[in-house]
Design a protein that fits this description.
Radius of gyration: 15 Å
Largest sheet: 8 strands, antiparallel, barrel
Order of helices and strands: EEHEEEEEHEEE
Strand content: 35-45%
Number of helices: 2
Shape: globular
Helix content: 10-25%
Number of strands: 10
Length: 178
């Protein structure tokens, strides 16, 4: 255990809407006690600069904001090996929590994450089955809710095979572990 059981990460953001660029910071507090593997995985990506210059590539109104895996030209970045799903940790997919994104395989999370913009109880762990695994919450937004609110309002479109992509870039300029 480190001296700080709950590390914090700042996401330095820029949101482009037409000719206007808004800048701000979303501060995340990670929950090392309940989600140690997810926390260490996320910090590993932060510390090597992986998230710098990536985008929020899915913005689904009334649901969540997903980022951490694509460049602004929608090229997916190569990641480290997937981690174990820690969704049975007791943390809930409530508004302003951050969770690991994954494929249909419950243990497929790598770098991508999402911020819940509403309470998403249906994403919580119920059992270690295909439908019940859920999505591992590993932290929460502790400041910068105004930026989250701004991102969730951006106009979206389809780009290639991807739906719900912001029309203009929503970029993580830099992710910094505090």
């Amino acid at each position: 255990m480190s001296a700080n059981p709950n590390p914090r990460v700042e996401l330095h953001m820029s949101i482009t809407e037409g000719d206007t660029v808004s800048k701000g910071v979303i501060t995340l507090e990670l929950d090392r006690e309940h989600a140690p593997k997810s926390t260490e995985n996320f910090l590993s990506y932060v510390n090597k600069g992986f998230y710098d210059g990536t985008i929020f590539h899915r913005v689904i109104k009334g649901f969540m904001l997903q980022g951490g895996g694509f460049t602004p030209d929608m090229k997916q970045k190569a990641t480290d090996a997937p981690i174990e799903n820690e969704a049975a940790n007791g943390l809930k997919n409530d508004k302003y929590t951050i969770a690991m994104a994954r494929t249909g395989d419950p243990h497929s999370a790598t770098a991508q994450f999402f911020i819940n913009v509403v309470d998403n109880g249906f994403l919580n762990h119920t059992s270690p089955t295909g439908q019940g695994w859920g999505y591992a919450v590993f932290g929460k937004v502790v400041s910068g809710e105004d930026m989250v609110e701004q991102i969730k309002k951006v106009r979206t479109t389809r780009k290639g095979f991807h739906d719900d992509v912001p029309y203009d870039a929503v970029v993580i300029e830099k992710a910094v572990a505090l």
